[in-house]
TrEMBL record:
Transmembrane segments: none annotated. It comes from Butyricimonas paravirosa. This is Thiol-disulfide isomerase/thioredoxin. Residues 1-20 form the signal peptide. The lineage of its organism: Bacteria, Pseudomonadati, Bacteroidota, Bacteroidia, Bacteroidales. One of its GO terms (biological process) is cell redox homeostasis. Keywords: Isomerase, Redox-active center, Signal.
């Protein structure tokens, strides 16, 4: 009978999975570039360089999940001499990064040893297919970056070739070169050549400068571009011009990080606006430009007056009003008369708050927004206590707004509040309480969602910093991709986003949610059979109640008035840290713990081997057993350690309840981790808006058994791998990364991701012997008893 405790090796979370494989990429042990070049020349192979650093999370993801896969190893070991360089520690790595054009990590470089020139490059972290396709492009002379560049420099400009070249440059992270090639291409085309169904998507994707030749042509011949036979073409043309105008206006700000002020460009842009078609884009750009000029001149009094006019006239849509308001409020702190300016700003805000004294929706919204402005000012000055007071007042009026407005709650708060306190206040049904029934898949909750009337399944993950969707879903629903230029741990150099216009959770309708786009082949998506995850930008605005007995998750903006005792909840990178207590020798310690519904293991996780040892000495952990192998982490992928520990906690305090002998294991994360199985103990209520949580234990709650198996296995690409080994008997005969190849001499067939652990297969089939293969290819026949708990 299968046990309910999930394998320790499947200590997985967002986008993280897979055991290391011996059939993966075989990297050279040397860090000498000279020796690498010599070997590649002698073997007539190209060179593959993995540029990484110790702190780089996506680099670790590649190393543990992608480089280890057999399909990757088959390609790279056959055609490349492979080497890894720590760009901060390895001498030859530090010397060559500039030559190779490494500007961010991870960067994967393909080099011709004959010339020592870069012939291809991949930036970021993708899956195995992404890496293999990148390698195959390098192996195909027609797709090699250096060959494409040579053809381009020789004057080749056929559209199909240019698209191939732009794609290769984009994969290499050479964004400046992409823009240069696109600009030259577009600038060389006539009106008849530009105003076509083939070229408009390229203009829309790459051209964002209203002063460029192309967008000037669009402005001057707008009817021609309106008439291109594409869906929603008129709206797309207007949106492209509006976005370009507003973005350019933002260049001329007081913050040097947002752009360089050039007087000639400023004058040209003013002339452009004079000739532009009347519309919201022109108005917004002009307003931003005017406010920026006043701020730059230090005329904060006139700047405040201009902002007052903007507020009265409601110039900006919700998604831009927040950034406008927040930015220029903080600009008050940059003028010479900083104290006077801030005091004037705060005084104005207080006047607006006093003026909005009614008990109606408009007054609530005005007061909420003005308190948000005060919070931004105090934050800019580093006055955290005052900022928190302003935020608390803002939250009070936001809650009143939700309770009374329903579908009138305005998204203007989004982006105004420091730290994103008011994310998503514009959802039309925010005042409703919704209870979702979840499915229990591989130890975690999966819920139904609807997008454009189509049903999908999403993991409900409190430790996902943002909602995520698969690229397949994005393409199916025709959502717009957005290249942000931002980074996110575990997701490569630049995060690609998409906006979900309407996301339905039960009867709750959420509008305009941003989501990070991940591959449909993401290991977690495949393992769970889901198309995305519900993350912090949805979860964190609600009071969330999780009842494991009834398999329900409730989202509400109201707190149960019967709850009187609360514990502290803080956010760490937008994920919940709960204040809990642990019992030691004669004393109780307060510690923070991550509450992770996306973690399906059957044990509490502890940060490190060292932390486990310290807690053992302090009497917090007992019944300790040592092992070695792989563990999963919340933020860094699979990690190989010299030691693994598992044991039981003396006592874990959750609210008034104390649970003794709680299973705990080396966890590899920054905090104590409460996996989703912790909800078996009682109902958790997470009051995100007010920074607190409540735990109500089930009357008959009891600590689960934990895991005593000496050998942990898991399927990886159809192969059964040993992930971790515990105890002296098993450690004498087995080791992590070995492959289980046969039971009683019968070869194992392809193993599914949810295949049972080796001990369950032995019992079910009455197996006597198990054949394993070590990392050097040697095979051994081991008695089945070694794999069973009785041999510990």
């Amino acid at each position: 009978m299968r046990r309910s405790v999930v394998l320790i090796v499947l200590f997985w979370a967002m986008g993280l999975n897979a055991l290391a494989q011996t059939q993966g990429i075989m990297f050279e042990p040397t860090r000498s570039w000279k020796k690498i070049v010599e070997k590649a020349r002698s073997e007539n192979k190209l060179i593959f360089v993995d540029c990484y650093a110790d702190w780089c999370g996506p680099c670790k993801q590649l190393a543990s999940q992608v480089f280890t896969q057999k399909e990757v190893g088959d390609v790279f070991n056959s055609h490349f001499v492979n080497v890894q360089f720590n760009v901060e520690k390895d001498a030859d790595g530090k010397v060559n990064v500039a030559k190779w054009g490494v500007a961010s990590l991870p960067t994967l470089v393909f080099i011709d040893p004959k010339t020592e020139q870069v012939i291809g490059k991949l930036v970021g972290a993708g899956d195995a297919a992404w890496l293999v396709n990148g390698a195959k492009a390098v192996l195909d002379p027609a797709k090699r970056l250096d060959v494409l560049a040579t053809r381009y420099n020789a004057g080749e400009r056929e559209p199909a070739f240019l698209l191939e070249f732009i794609k290769a440059l984009g994969s290499a992270g050479m964004n400046a070169e992409v823009q240069q090639v696109v600009k030259e291409w577009l600038d060389g085309l006539s009106l008849d050549q530009l105003a076509t169904p083939r070229m408009w998507p390229i203009i829309m994707q790459f051209e964002n400068d209203p002063l460029s030749k192309t967008l000037l042509m669009v402005r001057d011949h707008i009817d021609r571009f309106y008439s291109i036979p594409l869906e929603n073409q008129r709206a797309m043309v207007d949106a492209t011009l509006m976005g370009a105008m507003v973005q350019t206006a933002m260049e001329f700000s007081t913050n040097p990080n947002l752009g360089i002020y050039e007087q000639d460009r400023f004058n040209a842009f003013v002339d452009y606006l004079d000739q532009a078609k009347e519309g919201p884009g022109k108005t917004m750009a002009a307003v931003w430009l005017n406010t920026s000029q006043l701020a730059r001149q230090g005329d904060w009094k006139q700047m405040l007056e201009a902002m007052r006019e903007v507020e009265r006239e409601n110039v900006f849509p919700p998604q831009l009003y927040g950034p406008y308001f927040s930015f220029f409020m903080q600009a008050l702190t940059q003028v010479k008369e900083q104290k006077a300016a801030v005091e004037a700003g705060l005084k104005w805000l207080d006047e607006l708050i006093m003026a909005a004294s009614g008990e109606d929706v408009v007054s609530y919204q005005t007061r909420a927004m003005m308190y948000a402005g005060k919070a931004a000012l105090w934050q800019a000055l580093g006055k955290s206590a005052e900022m928190k007071k302003a935020q608390k007042e803002m939250e009070k009026y936001v809650n009143l707004l939700k309770a009374n407005a329903g579908n009138h709650v305005n998204e203007q708060m989004s982006g105004v509040v420091p730290g994103g306190v008011s994310q998503g206040l514009g959802d039309s049904q925010a005042s409703r309480e919704i209870t979702l029934n979840y499915e229990f898949r591989q130890g975690v909750p999966v819920v139904k969602v609807e997008i454009n009337g189509h049903t999908y399944y999403f993991l409900f993950d409190t430790c996902a910093g943002i909602t995520c969707v698969s690229d397949k879903l994005v393409n199916t629903e025709k959502l717009a991709y957005q290249q942000t230029g931002n980074t996110m741990q575990g997701m490569g150099d630049q995060v690609v986003m998409a906006e979900i216009p309407v996301l339905s959770l039960g009867g709750l309708v959420l509008k305009g949610r941003q989501a990070a786009v991940m591959s449909e082949h993401n290991p977690v998506f495949k393992h769970l059979g889901v198309d995305g995850t519900i993350g912090a930008n949805v979860i964190n605005e609600f009071v969330v109640t999780i009842d494991a007995r009834n398999k329900t998750i409730t989202l509400s903006d109201r707190v149960d008035p019967s709850i009187s005792r609360w514990e502290t909840l803080k956010l760490w990178n937008n994920v919940p840290l709960l204040s809990v207590k642990v019992q030691g020798k004669g004393e109780v310690h307060d510690v923070p713990a991550l509450f992770d519904t996306g973690n399906g293991t059957g044990a509490i996780g502890l940060p490190s081997v060292e932390g486990f040892e310290q807690w053992t000495q302090a009497g917090i952990i007992g019944d300790v057993e040592e092992g070695n192998g792989f563990i999963g982490t919340m933020v860094g992928g699979m990690v190989k350690t010299d030691k693994l520990y598992r044991g039981r906690m003396t006592g874990l305090h959750l609210g008034d309840a104390v649970f003794k002998k709680m299973p705990i294991i080396t966890g590899g994360i920054g905090y104590l981790l409460l996996c989703f199985k912790t909800t078996d103990l009682g109902v958790f209520t997470l009051d995100y808006p007010n920074g607190r949580y409540h735990f109500e234990p089930y009357v008959d709650a009891s600590v689960w058994e934990g895991d005593s198996r000496p050998v942990m296995t898991g399927s990886d690409n159809g192969v059964l791998k040993i992930a971790a080994v515990w105890g002296k008997e098993a450690s004498k005969r087995l080791a992590p990364r070995w492959t289980v190849i046969a039971l009683d001499g019968k070869p194992l067939e392809s193993m599914a991701l949810d295949s049972p652990n080796i001990d369950e297969m032995i019992r079910e089939r009455g197996v006597k012997t198990v054949t394993v293969r070590d990392t050097e290819g040697k095979e051994y026949e081991v008695k089945a008893e070694v794999f069973l708990p009785s041999m510990r």
